[in-house]
Amino acid sequence: MSVQAAVAPAAERSEAGMTNRMLIALFALAGTLVSAYLTLYAFGLVGEIACGSGGCQVVQNSPWARFMGVPVALIGLAGYGMLFVTALMGLQAAFAGSRAVSAILVAGAVGGAAFSAYLTYLEAYVIHAWCRWCVVSAVIVGGIVLAAIPEFRNLRRVSSE
Amino acid sequence: MARKKTPAGARNMKTFYGILALVAVVGVAAIVLAVRRGDGAMATEPIDLRQLGDATALLERAEGVTVGEEAAPVQILVFSDYMCPACAMWAGQIEPMLKAEFVATGKVRLTYYDFPLGGNFKHSFVAARAARCAGDQDRFWEYHDRLMSGQQQWAYSQSTPAAYFIDLARTVGAEPRSFESCLRSDTHAEAVTANRVLGETLGVGGTPTIFLNGRQVRQWNDYAALRSAIQAAGGV
Predict the structure, then answer these.
(1) Quick check: helix, strand or coil at residue B118?
(2) Interface mutation vs chain B, best among A18, A39, A41, A48, most B CBs within 10 Å
(3) Burial of B23: CB neighbours in 10 Å, binned 0-12, 13-18, 19+
(4) B199 vs chain A: nearest CA distance in angstroms?
(5) Alpha helices, H only, B155-232
(6) CA atoms in the 13 A half-sphere facing the CB of B58
(7) CA dihedral B115, B188, A58, B140 (to 10 degrees)
(8) Do the chains contact at B28 and A15, CB–CB below 8 Å?
(9) B195 and B113 in contact (C-beta within 8 Å)?
(10) In angstroms, what separates the C-alpha of B161 from chain A's closest C-alpha?
């Protein structure tokens, strides 16, 4: 096998990896903005939450809007922020094949999806109200999970090498 | 000499960073706008009486919401705050029995006056205005009852729960657009302030304060005692 033939598949994987990390960064940026808005609301810095219905206020003022005393929105802000920074780092040549970057993106995506599923369950069956921003966040997390699929593959590939 | 190729391609990266910057700028601008907008023109606090030349003239604007026959032998005045838990207890437990037994039978006429306490009860005033906006569409009592029974859902909101109030208006069958334009204005601000001033003039110090034919009822939470008082006052 020529050197060129051996390098090509790795380069293709890398290109695909880069595109999916761009998507993760974009989704994470959108999530950061949404959770920043909800965090400002949680700290009383936004006069009134833009929602279109009263559901956001019901959800955001319920006991479940805080997790161990910390506003859930702030946890989301930290999570999305971490994913955003990691995805941007992963776009740099030095981190293109980094296992650590893939691991953080996978962990962030899976953890975010689990947390989002838990919050959606609370909205549907416990609080009985829907916050549109939370639904938007759940969709964003879904996008991140899909975009993180190549990172699963990258993790498996790196561990088998 | 060939340029060194970046992993995602220089052109792709440029486009990507452009989109990223655009999303960030639009998002941050939207958040800044939302923060600056705040509560807009919505009156959330009583009128500052110091600005009025003659504060006593405001008393004439006091305006209760009544239920029951005008000629009923017993007149009950209720001074109440939508954020006060005891008021929710009055509205949820005592008032329904009172309405069923005495108001519906023409023995009692009930008049509700706002007494927004303010302070920690920061949404009291706007809630009182919201109920009156619903009242403009003949939905005062339904709205009043829902505000009281759902107190926990809106009373501790960090910001003005306007969206909740609008949603509630829709729930009780009010036309939401008219309701919203009423809520997002200073409509009824004078009447609610005047009601509070009236309460202060009558010596109301807390909520709920109940007057039965002009005399304050201390044991309002004891329905049997209230019934006896009503019957003694002529509501047999």
Answers:
(1) strand
(2) A48
(3) middle
(4) 29
(5) 162-171, 176-183, 189-201, 223-232
(6) 25
(7) 80
(8) no
(9) yes
(10) 7
What is d(CA A27, CA A148) in angstroms, rounded to the nearest whole number?
11
Q: Which two tokens stand for residue B6?
A: 């970046």
**Token pair belonging to A85:** 């920074």
Torsion sign (Cα): B114, B115, B118, B124? negative
Model ipTM value: 0.79
CA dist., res. B117 & res. A118, Å (int): 38
B38-85 pLDDT tens trace = 666 678 878 776 666 666 667 778 889 999 999 999 999 999 999 999
Give the residue-averaged pLDDT of B186-200: 91
* Shortest alpha-carbon distance between residue A70 and chain B (Å): 15
DSSP assigned state of A122? I
User: Which residues in chain A are closer than 8 Å to B154, comparing Cβ atoms?
Assistant: 54, 57-58, 61
Does A57 contact B164 at a Cβ distance shorter than 8 Å?
yes
DSSP code, position B235: -
